[in-house]
């Protein structure tokens, strides 16, 4: 039976990619290599190469016999995705990648380097079925869910790029003599992953949770990243939000709210006609209590649509006295859209209203506008 959150919003039927090592848990990997006539310990050997050394080229597996390398690679390391192109901005510290999957489907990921952290935004679906009218991905519709391995491989590729010093210059904190420290071309570590790329993560519930475990399981079983550095976003698939609370994960939940009143949210986030604002927030508070993590509320500020002071006041009243932080996002307009970012003075007033209610709020640094930075824009342009 489909999981809650997958029942109504399942992806259209279509071929999923061939099985990859990252699709399997440790026991599944052992079973797979034994079926190839290999000893079970080979599973940990190749998992260590992939997850710890980021190496899926069998030529680099020098501790594995050549014949075994070829068998295992053929069975468990199919080519999942290829780079269509990279586009960069912000002095090459922001890099967006357009991927072509095995069936020709296009998805995107973004790697962003800051002085104090590196964040990667990844896709969980090809397209999106939520139909939010201001979102380029929503306008494209849903093609299919990504596999666990397709999600994981985006992060592995990003980690390779960081390891190899492929991102550009960034200024860190002062070295002590007052001069900023340059990190041009230096290696960096991935610290944050946000499931805020193409797709609704909780509509691909099982694979997103499996991918999260691959990302956070210790080597050699996974990449060994911190759960606390992972954020999973949702437009408000309430049953899946409650289910996520039972997983025992410490990831942060981000709720893409975009309006505090049901009348407007029905238009901006059509799934609201099924689960109302109060229901979505109740599920969020339940997740906060279960996980011990503060909720992020994502709110795209749209000129003359959802940026009125009275809506800020209503949002503040709904959120005050809860473990929450609001991320205000100046809208990155999509081609042909009638909507655009709020005026600076309206943005400031919105912030002031929330702060008057004691609600922590940040205006997000919007990177990548000159490289079709909003989710789905690069894929739409390619199509």
From TrEMBL:
The active site is at 108 (proton acceptor), 375 (s-methylcysteine intermediate). Residues 114-370 form the Radical SAM core domain. S-adenosyl-L-methionine binds at residues 199-200, 233, 256-258, 332. GO terms for biological process: rRNA base methylation; tRNA methylation. Its cofactor is [4Fe-4S] cluster. [4Fe-4S] cluster binds at residues 128, 132, 135. CDD domains: Radical_SAM (cd01335). It is found in: Cytoplasm. One of its GO terms (cellular component) is cytoplasm. Its main location: cytoplasm. GO terms for molecular function: 4 iron, 4 sulfur cluster binding; metal ion binding; rRNA (adenine(2503)-C2-)-methyltransferase activity; rRNA binding; tRNA (adenine(37)-C2)-methyltransferase activity; tRNA binding. It catalyses: adenosine(37) in tRNA + 2 reduced [2Fe-2S]-[ferredoxin] + 2 S-adenosyl-L-methionine = 2-methyladenosine(37) in tRNA + 5'-deoxyadenosine + L-methionine + 2 oxidized [2Fe-2S]-[ferredoxin] + S-adenosyl-L-homocysteine; adenosine(2503) in 23S rRNA + 2 reduced [2Fe-2S]-[ferredoxin] + 2 S-adenosyl-L-methionine = 2-methyladenosine(2503) in 23S rRNA + 5'-deoxyadenosine + L-methionine + 2 oxidized [2Fe-2S]-[ferredoxin] + S-adenosyl-L-homocysteine. Its EC number is 2.1.1.192. Belongs to the radical SAM superfamily. RlmN family. Specifically methylates position 2 of adenine 2503 in 23S rRNA and position 2 of adenine 37 in tRNAs. This is Probable dual-specificity RNA methyltransferase RlmN. The gene is rlmN.
